Amino acid sequence: MQLGFNGATTMTSPLLLDVEIASNAGFDVIEITATKLDQFLHDEPLEEMHETLEDAGLQVHAINSIEKINLNDSAGRAQVLARTWQLSEYARALGCPWIVVVPGPAPAGMDWNAIRDDTVNSLRGMSDVAATFDVKLAFEFLGFLWCSVRTVAQSWEIVQAVDRANVGFVIDTCHFYAGDSTLASIRAVDEKKFAIFHINDVEPMPKEKIEDANRLFPGDGVIPLKEIIDAVRATGFDGVASIEIFRPEYWQRDPFAVALEAKEKALKVLNR
Fold first, then answer.
1. What's the Cα-to-Cα distance from 6 to each of 73, 105, 199, 251, 258, rounded to whole Å?
2. Do the beta carbons of residue 250 and residue 212 sit within 8 Å?
3. Cα 144 to Cα 187: distance, rounded to the nearest angstrom
4. How far from the centroid of its chain's Cα atoms is residue 154's Cα?
5. Average pLDDT of 25-30?
6. Cβ-proximal residues to 204 (8 Å cutoff; 6+ apart), any chain
């Protein structure tokens, strides 16, 4: 697999520093945090970022993310589509194939069929926009209790129902573990729709209490990474494993040292 650096791992660093870190640490690709790109574009043109990436010899694999894409009112749907248009423009200009898109909270009492159908409709509308720019959407379930789409199986059901060439999915090891997904559900997916494999670990704690801040470097926690990686490889997937760690403790450290440690530990579990 190619190794990707996700900007959430160094969330307090600006985008230019993320690019420098990812390049100097020897990552194959970078996954850009959308809010960091917004901040960069407040002062600099998009062409400047394109040139910076070229000079660094770094490919952008994804922009992460558009959040709460489903279960919206009409104003919310319009906002999601507008953001899809904006990030698709950015992605095309940067030669970036994917935009990560994330479901929102589940309304009380809404059954799975209603959640699935609304999410499918939302993704189809976003797909139409992204296709205009030849960009693809990577749908990422969240294993947390509050989320409307929590497992690999649910995510895969939605992506199959959307049935669009430019809509795929993400598997994140933290969300896999927190949402009690199964290894069999990974083996059931089509690797051609597999956009990104987010790799990380978590602290030993009840699954229902896991939050992003509880993430750890790969191999430092309790997620059965070997088994998950074996299941991912069994699909035939050989794409990007991107290190995504939202841990505030790590954000206080030297970002280059964090990137190097993340890379070393990710390679150790991937090559085990």
1. 31, 24, 10, 13, 12
2. no
3. 22
4. 16
5. 98
6. 221, 222
Phi/psi of residue 195, each to 5°? -85, -45
Instruction: Give the rounded distance of the alpha carbon of 41 from its chain centre.
Output: 21
Three-class SS of residue 80?
A: helix
Name the amino acid, one letter, at 203.
Answer: E
Spatial separation of the C-alpha atoms in residues 17 and 58, rounded to whole Å: 13
Alpha carbon dihedral 104, 141, 108, 75, in 10-degree steps, equals 20
pLDDT score of 94 more than 90: yes
pLDDT band at 18 (very low <50, low <70, confident <90, very high): very high
DSSP type of residue 179:
T
**pTM exceeds 0.90 for this model:** yes
We find that the CATH architecture of domain 2-270 is Alpha-Beta Barrel (3.20)
Q: What is the 3-state secondary structure (H, E, C) of 93-148?
A: HHCCCEEEECCCECCCCCCHHHHHHHHHHHHHHHHHHHHCCCCEEEEECCCCCCEC
**What's the number of CA atoms in the CB half-sphere (13 Å) around residue 224?**
11
**What confidence category does residue 272 fall into, taking pLDDT thresholds of 50, 70 and 90?**
confident
